[in-house]
Amino acid sequence: MRGSDTSRDPCPWVILNDAGGAFCMGAIGGGLWNFIKGSRNSPQGERMRGAIASMRARGPVLGGNFGIWGGMFSTFDCAMKGLRQKEDPWNAIASGAITGGLLASRGGWKAASVSAAFGGILLALIEGVGIGISRLTSATPPPVAQPPPPSN
């Protein structure tokens, strides 16, 4: 594909990479979150034991949820790149909408459409911020100084 990002793995491998990265992020964040939550909800003498039990019980669940979202998003992103033969922000926006809608499809059409809209809007905001930051941090070339006109 023209203009493809060569710093990332090719499309079939990026799905596994992103799903694993999302699982790790969700498991670590979910573990910390549930450790604090378990500590706060446990009786005075059982805080550490309750924190560890909550972290072990719920951390991997949140990691799995993140991993599924990351894997589905990357799958749809690769599919959009293949179908459209382009790499642009619209692929990520569409992938976010499709992923959100599909994950909420068990709740019916209304839940799926709301979740799809939310996923598309969220990815549009993320892509917009990314484009804005890249434009702000890109180095603009300094203006070329014009030599003075020759004097006779």
UniProtKB/TrEMBL annotation:
Membrane topology according to the record: Multi-pass membrane protein
Entry GO CC: TIM23 mitochondrial import inner membrane translocase complex
Domain of life of the source: Eukaryota
GO biological process: protein import into mitochondrial matrix
Entry's Gene Ontology molecular function annotations: protein transmembrane transporter activity
Stated name of the protein: Mitochondrial import inner membrane translocase subunit TIM17
Pfam families named in the record: Tim17
Coiled-coil intervals: none
Compartments where found: Mitochondrion inner membrane
Record carries keyword Repressor: no
Keyword terms of this UniProt record: Membrane, Mitochondrion, Mitochondrion inner membrane, Protein transport, Translocation, Transmembrane, Transmembrane helix, Transport
UniProt similarity note: Belongs to the Tim17/Tim22/Tim23 family.
